[in-house]
């Protein structure tokens, strides 16, 4: 599915605001990936050269990977980089293509809306019980679960925005019948 373009209309301010947030989240995701790469290299070097691994590197890396993934989900949807199957779509008529174009974000909004709600409850439970990550280091895990919920919520908002854009006929290519 192609990413919607910004056009003047009732949703353009909402799209611009959400896009700024998604851009920031993507930059944070990239920064987390860079730091994770640095940590893995530093851990490997200290372990191989000095037989002194960085304490907690595994636990920190798994947390960083989770953050990098969930912070980038909505941005990936914004730019249209999620995997899509176009093999059958190119053989469908214009009306069927429009139905599929509308139903995909509706299904995404429903599924990821539910996932946002469920992960939010899970994060609140984690906070209430002061859940900890146990390993070579111990740290609270609920902030990571809250950020998972935040990332899923941003993806849900992106899907809802796409539904509005399609419903208002503001999707790129809507004018030429695509």
From TrEMBL:
InterPro entries: DctQ, TRAP_DctQ. It is a multi-pass membrane protein. The keyword Cell membrane applies. One of its GO terms (biological process) is C4-dicarboxylate transport. Signal peptide: none annotated. GO terms for molecular function: transmembrane transporter activity. The complex comprises the extracytoplasmic solute receptor protein and the two transmembrane proteins. Belongs to the TRAP transporter small permease family. Part of the tripartite ATP-independent periplasmic (TRAP) transport system. This is TRAP transporter small permease protein. It comes from Nisaea acidiphila.
